[in-house]
Design a protein that fits this description.
Distance between the termini: 19 Å
Radius of gyration: 18 Å
Number of helices: 3
Helix content: over 70%
Strand content: under 5%
Number of strands: 0
């Protein structure tokens, strides 16, 4: 793992930036989760089931499927980033 040298006076700036990023990720995750739930309700299937069907080519290439895929992947990426920040000791 790469280490970064940081001057003591820079730590508060970095910490506040990380805290801000965590809040931003929480808001984005909430927004994407709402959109995922709307897709799931509309199509009466969970996102995981959608992904399996989509990847098998069983849903076609309608633009809405690609929108759902984008939202699903974006949500999961945000959750991964949030977990990394949650694992930091600030």
């Amino acid at each position: 793992m790469e280490q970064i040298r940081i001057k003591d006076e820079a730590l508060p700036i970095l910490k506040s930036g990380i805290v801000f990023k965590k809040k931003l990720l929480s808001v984005k995750a909430g927004n994407y989760l709402k959109r995922l739930k709307a897709f799931e309700k509309k199509h009466k299937m969970k996102s995981e089931a959608f992904l399996k069907k989509f990847n098998r080519g069983k849903l076609g290439d309608d633009e809405e499927w690609f929108d759902w895929l984008f939202v699903y992947e974006a949500y999961n990426k945000i959750i991964e980033q949030k977990k990394i920040i949650d694992g930091m000791s600030l």
